[in-house]
Amino acid sequence: MNWHPDEQTAQAANQFPFPIHQQEPAPQPLGRNFIPASWNRRTIAQAWPAGPLRSDPERIIQLFRDAHYLEALAMTVSWGRMRKQAPIYDDRNLPDIERALKQCAKSIQETNEAQDAWLILTGNQRQHLGWSAVMASKTLHFLSRALPDPVGQSPPVPRDGKVSLCYVWPGWIAHVPPPQRPQNWKENTFEAYNRYMTAILVWAGQRHWTTTQIETTIFHEGTMA
Q1: What pTM does this model have?
Q2: Is the pLDDT of residue 86 over 90?
Q3: CA neighbor of 83 nearest in space, from 157, 138, 123, 145
């Protein structure tokens, strides 16, 4: 995927890498036991795979790949433990949510960039979903990984509050001299998310890992801290 790194963030991330202790990437967290009947009201077709289900990353990716957008979204909500986040569904019609997710996939495929898709998910206009950066980043992560190879080694990765904002950001920025500190990551804008992704891309490049591997490893160490 094409990214346009934030220059100040890239310079600081290169000069002051975030300390990662593991030498090998950590596996991405698995999901939870998933009971489709509890989520049927969040879908239209109820196109669930057969057998016992878990909201695991590979299952979510396959659902997005098969264009079962609402089922994939439900599993993303489960995987990210976001079920209590009412604004994800709020008063929006399911066809509108499905249409927005289709538009995200089409935009990423056509541009190989995430900015327009980010606006579709987080924007406040009527045609947008108004989601938080946390939910948007989790959704675009799996949606992008379900698309053909142009997304490659650098898909957008999840950004959360507990680890990304409360562990990584303060742990990293404390070692960056004040004149060299970039703006923070906490806003809902694509610019803030792009600054976060810039740091992830730099640190992934330093280890020759994918953005998924670097985020997953940092998340794992952050939850253990």
Answers
A1: 0.95
A2: no
A3: 138
